[in-house]
Amino acid sequence: MERDEPTFYGNGVNQDLAVTTRYAAIEPMYDSEEIPDVLLKLTEIISGKEEAFDKLAGMMEGLAGLPAAPTKAAWERLKAEGEKSPFTKACREVGLIETAKRLHTTPENLDKTLREKGVYHEESMHELLEQYAVPHKLPTTTASGRIEFFSTLFDMLRSQGFTTPHFSVLARPFAAECRENKTMDQALDEDEFYFTYGKVPTVSYGSTNSNNPVLAAINTWKKDIYTGVWLHPDRAEKLGIQSGDKIRLKNTLSGQEADGHAYVTRKVRSDTLFLHSAFGVENPQLTRSYAMGGTATNHLIPHNVEPVVAGFRSQEFTIRIAKA
Amino acid sequence: MAKTPHYAMVIDLNTCVGACMAACAMENQTPVWENKWRTYVHDMEIGGDNDELIRRRFFPRLCNHCDNPPCMSVCPTGATHKLDNGIVMVDDELCMGCRACAMACPYDARYDVTYDDVDQGKEFYGELHHRSRPSVDKCSFCAHRVMRGLKPACVETCVGSSRLFGDLNDPKDEVSKLVKSGVAKPLMAHLGTRPNVYYISDIERTT
């Protein structure tokens, strides 16, 4: 909400070929800086001030194609001009020029189109299909010349030693494991629930915009819904829990514990607890969001990493609750 | 000669996520610290007792800019008045704060802005603060923006394109078409207020 994205990238939600980026909707609060500038400072600490920029910009050139030399020139100029987040701004500036060049347009026109329409269209889905659709181009480029449901990437990874079933070259299901020595078919105990979480439209956890006074006022109005642990009334009644009651939550796999307040609602399944992930801020400097309270999801979600894409297995456990 | 517009809003409840309150507050500088807003988006549970039918529904509420506004009929000073384009306005200079309008409004759209709120607003919104008098305030369809050819702030910033704003006198206007088709319906039409805010419910959407 408070940042211009440092890069320009493909529009992921539409099947047309298009470019998009993010524009800041509100001013950053306090003395907060953009993430790329923070990462650059960390690189300076780790790699030494002299080499940091070249290392980071070189890596970005290799990974994202953003040319290091003009980015460095823009960074030095913006730094001299006293820009607050000069590295981010430099990436944005060079990214705009390079993307416009690729699209055979001007940076001004690209910027104007993105501001007005949100996306810059390159080709429609139908034009793409006309040119690239597999049925028109058979035989395919697979080994058999036919459509194969086979991952060449995973095949390569397997040859590099990643041989657990997660790296199967064919799509295969994995049963979820939420409890030790118990299958998903086995009944939950009376005080035991699956866990899921989601976002609110007004804040991101730990972001400085969580302290924005207007957004904080909306959150305060909806405090019970937003900060409470959602619990189905049929289960709540059996446990003697009512909306607003203080409850203790315990992760049955990791042993992590946290406090929360119950919000009893039929909007959640009876076997599951739901929590908005934006609250439970622990930084007292963020006075408004700190005062909101709530339960931080990182007190309940363990460091349990999925082996293929390294995403968190953030819902593969159960939680026991009790009135505190 | 072009017909005078008759402005109306359509809200599609299927795509609302309740993000517009902030845009409205910033545009119209409402006393949010006192939980006073020109538009509220309620977070509701609908569907009765059957768990399979239960849904979370965001429900936006605002002044309905009625063609027969009870708040205007009861206003003793003429502060509440209606423009030719259908927008119901409040003149802060004429409002004496009697709250008759708040009692008359069936949509609970009126709220007090007090002298304390005006003072606090200067602190909260800083040098851009534009309110100098208290009144019994409400949504103005962002008339100051509409007159410049812009959409109301809540419509302009609606991430789900849930809120649409248009002219009922223009048969080609999307809002006009939705209202004419009967898909979008007003709240409490039986009261005879003839509101200009219409809602598309999920049931209508599926038919």
TrEMBL record, chain B:
Question: GO molecular-function annotation terms?
Answer: 4 iron, 4 sulfur cluster binding; metal ion binding
Using the record's annotation, list all stretches that form the 4Fe-4S ferredoxin-type domain: 54-85, 86-116
Q: Which UniProt keywords apply?
A: 4Fe-4S, Iron, Iron-sulfur, Metal-binding
Pfam families linked to this entry: Fer4_11 (PF13247)
Q: Where are the transmembrane segments?
A: none
Q: What is this protein called?
A: 4Fe-4S ferredoxin
Organism from which the protein derives: Candidatus Thiomargarita nelsonii
